[in-house]
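User: quick one, fold this
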Amino acid sequence: MKVALILFDVDLSKFNLDNYYKIGVDRGALNATLSSIPLDLSIGDFDSVNDKELSLIKANSLNLIKLNPIKDLTDTEEALNEALKISDDITIFGGIKGNRIEHFLSNLTLFFKFNKLTIIDNNSKIYLIDKKTIIDNDYKYVSFFSLDNNLHISLKGFKYNLNNYNLKITDPLCVSNEIIDKCGEVEVDNKTLVVLSKEDRKL
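Assistant:
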């Protein structure tokens, strides 16, 4: 079963979460509650909700874990540890936008611990690949970032194709490419590549 971690800064009406084990993370649990999405688990220190909102969250959750606000891990990472008890196929809904840039940067570091993680919001999607992958033409722009100076990438079906190009960590060449065919083909040589798709074509 796939696991969904639900944060607050995302429009849940864009997604079908029926087949997910659903975890509301702190104020994200309120987002799910207000969106009429029942939760399997709510977790957080809940310092961002009031007593009335917390009561609503409890009524909408099969289980609830209230964390000590003085802790070493973020609410999201605590939620990820709970999610791993269910599956390693985890999607975080939210956590890309908002005015808490430190939380976004913290979420990006999670990819070093959870390599099957996906982070998605209203019009962006971030995930990792390490082999030949087909990318659907759902987003206007697709960017690629290497985590290894010896990574080689080939692209087909894109506005700017590549053939066995050595994409270094500091190389911006693969920012804001576009898929011009029905799908794009990405091939890497067993190194980790970050894929960031942006601007949902359905908007």
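User: anything notable?
Assistant: The chain has two domains: 2-122, 128-200.
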